[in-house]
UniProtKB/TrEMBL annotation:
Protein name: methylmalonate-semialdehyde dehydrogenase (CoA acylating)
Biological process annotations from GO: L-valine catabolic process; thymine catabolic process
Domain Aldehyde dehydrogenase positions: 20-477
UniProt cross-references to Pfam families, sorted A to Z: Aldedh
Provenance organism: Sphingomonas gei
Keyword set, alphabetical order: NAD, Oxidoreductase
Entry EC no(s): 1.2.1.27
The keyword Isomerase belongs to this UniProt entry's keyword annotation: no
Residue ranges of the region described as Disordered: 481-500
Molecular function as annotated in GO: methylmalonate-semialdehyde dehydrogenase (acylating, NAD) activity
Ranges in coiled-coil conformation: none
Length: 509
């Protein structure tokens, strides 16, 4: 059976004392085992990072950018094999896996422009003979702790900007699907990155705590559930680190009476059920305004949901594949039962779905609830599966309050033809990322990603200029040069003796 080990520069450590199973979600079978590291493994990686980082920081930004360019080329050349490897451990269909990788590469493309974005500010003549300028310098060693649902995109979001800024980076990916992060790190080394600058350590809570406590790590970026995000933020800050910790979500889609319902249904089919709903930017709650809108939307949703094809990851006709493991499947099915117990109307029940020939796979059919209310626990919490809930709102103001008052504030969307309503909604809603007729409002790489409330802990967002700010520290220099009568190497050795003489252009003849 395949073993997935750490990718640490320098001398190898002892054999792994603990291992964790890596499943193929399509079959339910164990396909590999991954090492679960200890603080000793982390210390080895830290030692290698400390040895390599000063030289990498001293490498000029243009040369660092060239590594990013080469890495992008290598990932694109290996796209098919990476996507199949990702799907085999996560379960998402190949098209979604390629999208996972591509969205990460877009941040690498942004990182290719690092020479420009690292430029500081300059003020000439801030005082008599005084100039002031600033520079952005790397923090030293950073770490990323990433979730199972995007094993390529989120590691690339973090590591690309951090490394381009001159830092060494330690990645602790999810132990559920660890192979693609390791492969990406290998391709980064192939692109010319010095050993020790990007390393991968595997593990569970023991490794997470070691990262949060290690004094040599200056900054930690995390994506996961909100409770763990809060824990990571609090413990990391107490240890004196800079921390950004992205948590869970319960994104809403507001459907105004004038919306194009056919387009809304098409958007919801992908946004609510794509990747089996295992996305923090999924759209699991739809809020039609008015019963007439709700009834019409429900009528159009039913045939669309029933036509969704659930299949193995390699099925090109499948809309989505299995969830990541049996425990997560059970968690999603438990939330469906909770919704039933709370009195929501279960219109489509995806529990008990089995795919012929893959009966042991971790599949769940699509589910649809109607008449969900804000008091229900199944509405308040993140289900993270292929479940769509309809929460009816009588008017615009009620629809606006629902996402604004929810504990999560990651993303929200509004579907309307009315520009004024869209503008008013975008300005007033208490959520970090807004889509207007866009169901999954993930910003492009040169903007930044980040939610509000319990969806994010910390003050700086992911990627874009926010990412550059997170992975660097600003140094500001105030300088004044005295107008001395002589320059170094002046008249005594035949050079110019006065400052003004130093700038005289000699004449010919």
């Amino acid at each position: 059976m395949r073993t997935i080990d750490h990718l640490i520069a320098g001398p190898a450590g002892g054999g792994a004392l603990r291992m964790s199973d890596v499943f193929d979600p399509n079959t339910g079978q164990v396909q590999a085992r991954v090492s679960l590291g200890t603080s000793a493994d982390l210390d080895r990686a830290i030692a290698a990072a400390q040895a390599a980082q000063p030289g990498w920081a001293a490498t000029n930004p243009q040369r660092r950018a060239r590594v990013m360019f080469k890495f992008k080329e290598l990932v694109e050349a290996n796209m098919d094999s990476l996507a199949h490897l990702l799907s085999s451990e996560h379960g998402k269909v190949i098209a979604d896996s390629k999208g996972d990788i591509q969205r990460g590469l877009e941040v690498i493309e942004f990182a290719c422009g690092i020479p420009h974005v690292l430029k500081g500010e300059y003020t000439q003549g801030a005082g008599p003979g005084i100039d002031v300028y600033s520079m952005r310098q790397p923090l030293g060693i950073g770490a990323g702790i990433t979730p199972f649902n995007f094993p390529a995109m989120i590691p690339l979001w973090m590591s690309g900007v951090a490394i381009a800024c001159g830092n060494a980076f330690l990645l602790k990916p999810s132990e559920r699907d660890p192979s693609v992060p390791v492969r990406l790190a290998e391709l980064m080394l192939e692109a010319g990155l010095p050993e020790g600058i990007l390393q991968v350590v595997h593990g569970d809570k023991e490794m997470v705590d070691a990262i949060l406590d290690h004094p040599a790590i200056s900054a930690v970026s995390f994506v996961g559930s909100s409770d763990i995000a809060h824990y990571v933020y609090r413990r990391g800050v107490e240890a004196g680190k800079r921390v950004q910790a992205m948590g869970g979500a319960k994104n809403h889609g507001i459907v105004m009476p004038d919306a194009d319902l056919d387009q809304v249904v098409a958007d919801l089919s992908g946004a609510a059920f794509g990747s089996a709903g295992e996305r923090c930017m999924a759209l699991p709650v739809v809020v039609p305004v008015g019963d007439k809108t709700a009834d019409a939307l429900r009528e159009k949703l039913l045939p669309a949901i029933r036509s969704l094809r659930v299949g193995v990851s390699t099925d090109n006709d499948a809309h989505y594949g299995p969830v990541v493991n049996a425990a997560h499947r059970q968690r999603v099915e438990n939330w469906i039962q909770t919704g039933v117990d709370e009195g929501a109307e279960l219109v489509v029940d995806g529990r008990g779905f089995q795919l012929q020939g893959h009966e042991e796979g971790f599949f769940i059919g699509p589910s649809l609830f109607d008449r969900v209310t804000p008091e229900m626990q199944s509405y308040k919490e993140e289900i993270f599966g292929p479940v769509l809930q309809i929460v009816r709102a009588p008017d615009f103001e009620t629809a606006l309050r629902l996402p604004s008052e929810h504990q999560y504030g990651n993303g929200v969307a509004i579907f309307t033809r009315n520009g004024h309503a869209a503008r008013e909604f975008a300005a007033r809603v208490n959520v970090g990322m807004v889509g207007i007729n866009v169901p999954i409002p993930v910003p492009v790489a040169y903007h930044s990603f980040g939610g509000w409330k319990r969806s994010a802990f910390g003050d700086v967002n992911q990627h874009g200029m926010e990412g550059v700010r997170f992975w660097t520290k600003v140094k500001t220099v105030t300088q004044r040069w005295p107008d001395g009568s002589a320059l170094p190497g002046g008249s005594e050795d035949g050079g110019p003796s006065r400052i003004q003489d130093a700038f005289v252009i000699p004449t010919m003849g």
